[in-house]
Design goal:
This protein has helices at 2-20, 55-62, 84-92, 118-126, 135-153, and strands spanning 27-32, 35-41, 74-80, 97-102, 128-130. The protein is an alpha/beta fold. The chain has a five-stranded mixed sheet with strand order 2-1-3-4-5. The N and C termini lie far apart (41 Å).
Length: 154
């Protein structure tokens, strides 16, 4: 559990960096055998708009190519429950374990789990999902995510 807290704290640090840069406060870390192998933070608005630059996607892109053969041994830590895009990518990459800080009832995949196509259902069942973890620390980040998204709409 100490290891989970350590990497969640790092994900929270990355979320704060993203927020200072003008993006949504979401951060992600990927580990293998207790060592960080990749990090990502939300960069969808700055430096230029790209809706695919979620923290989890950025972390997945940063994993060294020679590590992918061990993907089932990896843990992805993220401050917010992954959205549908990130959820699908995590399953396609066959990440073995996911730890998220705050639940996302607005954009997370929880309501769709009963409707997954067979491949994604099989991968989901092979993946260990833990969360919300450290919600008292991650929920304020999520509240700021929602507020920033609402400001962008208006």
């Amino acid at each position: 559990m100490f290891e989970d807290e350590k990497f969640m704290h790092r994900a929270m640090e990355l979320a704060l960096v993203a927020e200072r840069e003008g993006n949504l406060p979401i951060g992600s870390v990927i580990t293998l055998k207790g060592e960080s192998v990749a990090e990502g933070r939300n960069t969808i608005w700055v430096p230029k708009f790209d809706a695919t630059r979620h923290a989890e996607m950025e972390a997945l892109r940063a994993v060294p190519s020679d590590h992918w053969e061990s993907s089932v041994e990896m843990t992805l830590y993220t401050t917010l429950e992954p959205c549908l895009m990130c959820f699908g990518s995590i399953l396609l990459h066959r990440i073995g374990r996911v730890v998220f800080g705050s639940a996302d009832n607005y954009g997370g995949p929880s309501s769709l789990l009963a409707y997954l196509p067979p491949f994604f259902k099989e991968q989901f069942e092979k993946t260990q999902w833990l969360g919300p973890m450290m919600a008292s620390e991650c929920d304020p980040l999520y509240e700021r995510v929602r507020a920033l998204e609402e400001d962008r709409k208006g």
